[in-house]
Design brief:
eight-stranded antiparallel beta sheet; five-stranded antiparallel beta sheet; 29% helix
Length: 480
């Protein structure tokens, strides 16, 4: 029914992506086009801007060239040439996780490398680099299986997983990165490596959490879980009912079993065709829940929230392929949205009172979303095969998203910083890698995505495997 992307889409008139202006030299053009079987585009070519544009148009790329590889061999060729010429390499599937602008380098758009192979007997999926999460979820669901997807199915499955992967099954099964069996990686010197617990174990540890800092992932194998159906949806509250629900949420959430994962958000809804009429131009509290178990038990657990009187209730039993309807994040056109994130030490009364003060119905804020995502359960336990996804002691994730055109960037960022400052006494100081944005590029901010020991290990591995830091168009882990 309603999602943060619906709000964003309704709040903005989306503009086009500005074309890049860099003109590549003959050396790059000649060598790249002769080495790559797939598509190679330069700034003057038709389609160049479309191929480097990502979902979040806050960041505008200006690469020297865009490579749309036909296979993993093209990825190796592009990376090798970038190394020879000393050009930075950026990797993009959908552009949902855009952070830094790929200026002056080579952008590899993996969108054509899209395939999924399900082995239902082993409960394993083989996933190519550019595959969208929707493709993986639907392929697994056909066998009564599920992956550890996020709230949106429009994101790239590989990028989402390598950044940790936090979703509606999190409290039961942990992070998506915890379920990866093997990774095919093209290293900064253009070599293909197969990573697993028994092969190149250090890199296997680092890439699961370190994302694109160590090369281009051309494919992965990931475990699936049994889940043909689940019970889930959203409850929307307004006015005094919203305040009651927010204040009741911490004690209620603390009693939930790991089979249920929830979120709580204040949403400011525009008056737009994409928003249901009863919700237009209002401030709502949205509570989402996903429960793996019997519908009767889910309804029992939800009873205290239902008693508060939601004005809209989308809860029900869903086939797993429809899990996206819980948050209802449909595919939409590229748009500019500014985001900030943090991790809460405790999900307690003090934290939700701060949420009411900063984001409640009386606060004067623009369209957007301020959300708390419940953690704990399996998300608090170490992975069976260790990886670089850290800060597992956090109680909740704070996520702020506001749409705005580029000329309002300064005002939106200042407002978001005030919100972050207001929450500061409740934050751990850490961040989740997948939720970091273009506002989180400073070295100290990147360091905050990892535990101190893990970050130190990551910088040492970066020095070994990418000493020239070719893979720096990201939340960059610099070589030690």
């Amino acid at each position: 029914m309603l999602s943060r992307r619906t709000i964003i889409k309704g709040a903005l008139a989306i503009g086009g992506t500005a074309a890049a202006t860099h003109d590549p030299g003959d050396r790059l053009a000649t060598r790249l086009t002769s080495a790559v079987k797939g598509t190679v585009l330069f700034p003057r070519d038709p389609g160049f801007a479309a191929e480097h544009a990502g979902y979040n148009s806050v960041v505008r790329h200006a690469p020297q060239a865009v490579v749309v590889p036909a296979d993993a061999g093209d990825v190796r060729a592009a990376v090798r040439l970038a190394g020879v010429l000393g050009l930075p390499v950026a990797v993009q599937a959908t552009g949902h996780g855009i952070s830094a602008a790929a200026d002056g380098g080579i952008l590899i758009n993996t969108r054509r490398l899209s395939s999924v192979k399900i082995n239902p007997a082993r409960r394993v999926a083989k996933v190519a680099a550019g595959t969208r999460m929707r493709t993986l979820v639907e392929a697994a669901a056909a066998h009564g299986l599920a992956t550890i997807n996020g709230s949106s199915l429009d994101v790239g499955a590989v990028g989402y997983t390598l950044g940790g992967g936090l979703g509606p099954l999190g409290r039961k099964y942990g992070y998506a990165a915890d379920h990866v069996r093997a990774i095919n990686l093209v290293t900064p010197d253009g070599r293909p490596l197969r990573l697993s617990p028994g092969r190149h174990a250090d890199l296997f540890w680092a890439v699961r959490g370190g994302k694109s800092n160590f090369g281009v992932v051309t494919g992965m194998e990931i475990d699936l879980v049994k889940a043909a159906t689940l019970y889930g949806g959203a409850l929307f509250f307004f006015g005094e009912a919203a305040r009651r629900v927010v204040r009741a949420y911490p004690a209620w959430a603390a009693r939930l079993p790991e089979e249920m994962t929830t979120t709580l958000a204040f949403m400011r809804l525009p008056k737009a065709p994409t928003v249901p009429p009863p919700l237009q131009d209002r401030v709502a509290v949205r509570l989402t829940a996903a429960h793996l178990g019997r519908a009767q038990e889910a309804r029992r657990l939800l009873a205290p929230m239902l008693a508060a009187g939601p004005e809209l209730n989308t809860m029900g039993t869903l086939p797993y392929g429809k899990i996206w309807t819980i948050s209802n994040d449909p595919p939409v056109a590229p748009l500019p949205v500014f985001e900030r994130t943090g991790l809460l030490r405790k999900l307690d009364a003090a934290a939700v009172e701060k949420l009411l003060t900063l984001a409640g119905p009386d606060a004067k804020l623009p369209f957007g979303l301020i959300e708390l995502r419940q953690l704990g359960g399996a998300l608090a336990r170490p992975a069976a095969v260790p990886n670089a996804v850290g800060h597992r002691d956090a109680a909740a994730l704070l996520f702020i998203a506001n749409p705005a055109p580029a000329d309002q960037a300064g005002a939106v960022r200042r407002l978001q910083q005030r919100l972050m400052d207001g929450f500061k006494p409740h934050l751990t100081g850490g961040m989740a890698a997948n939720f970091m944005s273009g506002a989180d590029l400073a070295p100290e901010q990147v360091r905050a995505a990892y535990t101190p020991a893990d970050y130190k290990r990551l910088t040492r591995l970066k020095r070994i495997h990418d000493p020239r830091n070719l893979f720096r168009v990201n939340h960059n882990i610099r070589p030690a």
